[in-house]
Every structure is written in structure tokens, then in C-alpha cells.
Amino acid sequence: MYLGIDTSNYTTSVCLLNDQKEIFQEKKILQVKSGEKGLRQSDAVFQHTVNLPELIRKLQIETGTQFNLKTVTASSKPRNVDGSYMPCFLTGVNTAYAVSAFTGATYYETSHQIGHILSVLFSENLLQLINEPFVALHLSGGTTEVLLVEPDNENILSAKIIAKSLDLKAGQAIDRTGVLLGIDFPCGAELDKLSLESAQNYRHKPSVKGMDVSLSGVENKATELFKSGAPKQDIAKFVLTYIAESVLAMLDNVFSEYPIMPIVFSGGVSSNSILRNTVKSKYNAFFANPQFSCDNALGVAVYGYLKDKFNE
């Protein structure tokens, strides 16, 4: 079996993958006080420390057997670049290293971002893409990036940013709007449901600079609409359609410079229905089931699985 542990700023996740490619996963969303827009790193570290033993024990009960682990992998940083660091990932690293030491399983580290991408590839039966270039979008509370992903002998995949948001991230815009409307953080799923109640048909002109976009204006406009008494469902739809059209604009600009390649969406924002429908109206893009779009440890476990197979 292959164990993956991911401790992001939003979710504690553990996942077991066996050689039959069956998935056993447990995760717990970190608690954020009502009205607040996120967590301090110290609070995230504390909650992960409490959650990890409970979730690993649940995995053991779910599988009904003692773990016969081949690899243990942790997401140790947000991205595979120098200087990428968040304290919350240390909790997963420490737990994974301890499990490895006591079980004899091989220990690996990868990044949260590579874990996201591998989660989508595995869950959508697209693992063959690790052998060719493709475009991945990582859309979350901390990241809004279009990535050129290529095979990498050491790290399975390399990911180079080719387009991004210059300021506010898509997940930040969604969560700040949700909190403004009285929705508890994280707000993505509830804001999505709320937007579907709106009959408005919005058309936007995204703020584009080269292949990059700016999203800060949508937060300001949402605040203006709220103060003017606009219905909450219309505000939700305004923000989500703006984000979707901005993402589409990034893709259009990328493919004016790069050849058409497979497109893979990852990150919690990728679960949004308006975004999916907007992108699919023009591109044959791949989206994972929402449970594997948002923060999860499947891709981290898959990393260990792939490293084990490559080393056989």
C-alpha cells in the first residue's frame, strides 16, 4: 500500500492506495471561526497535529488490515521551487517520516501542487499524461496559475508558470465574497449553489496583461453590489462568471503562444460549475470529481506509487 499525507492551509488529508488502485481516503476541513476569511499558520499547524492521528486510525479501521506500506509520501511545500514554504506542511512531513521510520516504508516528499495534478490524472484515468507535455490549471485560495507541465525523471512532473493572476487569487475572491454574503469559510460550494439561483446573464471584459489577469476588481465590484442591495445570488453569479471568463481569457492567450495541449484543472476552485461549463464550451478540458479537485492526499499517495514502480 501507498500512504499519502497532505496538510494544506485548509484540509488535513490522508489517503491509502493499493496495487489494485483502490482508494481509501480520510480528510477533515480545518475549522475557521464564523466571519473570518482564513487561518493563521499556527492555528493550522495545531489542527493538523490533532487531526492526523485520528484520520490515520480511521484509515486503518476502514481497510480492516494492518498497513503493509511500500511508500509514505508527504506534501512538504506548496510548489517545487526554491523558497516555497508554509509551516502547515511540516506536520504532514513529521508524521510521514515517523510512519516511514517505524514501518520501513520508503519515504518521499512532493509538493502540494504536484499532488493536486496527480490526483486529477489518477482519478480521471489520465496517468499516461505524465509522459508528455500538458497544461494544468491550479486554482485555489493561494494559487491561480496556468502551468506548463512536463515529464521529470526526478520529480515525476515539472510545472512552469506560464500565466497567473497578478493580484487576488480566484479562491480568495470566492471566499471573500462568500464571507461578505454571510457564508462560512471556505465558501466555494455554497457560493456555487447560490449563483445557480440567479437569472442574470453577465458578460465581462477580463482585465488582461499579456497572458496574466487581474482579479482584484471583482472583489471591489462585489462590495459595491452588496452595498447597493443587489440580491445575493446575483452577486455570487457576478463573481463566479468573472472568474470563469478570466480563466478562459488566460487559456486563449496561452494557446495563442503555445501549441494546443491537453488541459487539466486542479484545485478547489475547479469544482465550480460555472467555471466548468464556461471552459468546456470552448476547450476539451479535464476536470476531476470535486472530492479530488479540492485539497486531498490522493495525488501525494500516487506520487509514492509512481516512484515505487519506476524504481522496480
Describe the structure.
- The chain has 312 residues and is of the alpha/beta class.
- Helices cover 43% and strands 22% of the residues.
- The chain contains 10 helices and 12 strands.
- The chain has helices at residues 41-63, 88-103, 112-123, 170-180, 188-195, 216-227, 232-257, 273-280, 290-293, 298-310, and strands at residues 2-7, 11-17, 23-29, 71-77, 106-111, 134-139, 144-152, 156-164, 207-209, 212-214, 263-266, 285-287.
- Helix 1 (41-63) runs parallel beside helix 2, helix 3 packs across helix 10 and helix 5 packs across helix 7.
- The radius of gyration is 19 Å and the shape is globular.
Look at the structure and give the mean pLDDT. Answer: 95
Number of strands: 12
What's the story with the biggest beta sheet?
5 strands, mixed
* Class from helix and strand fractions: alpha/beta
Strand order of the largest sheet: 3-2-1-4-5
Distance between the termini: 15 Å
Strand/helix succession: EEEHEHEHEEEHHEEHHEHEHH
Helix content: 40-55%
- Multimerization state: single chain
Uncertain stretches = none
Q: How many alpha or pi helices? A: 10
Beta-strand content estimate = 15-25%
**Radius of gyration, in angstroms, nearest whole number:** 19 Å
Q: Which term fits the overall shape? A: globular
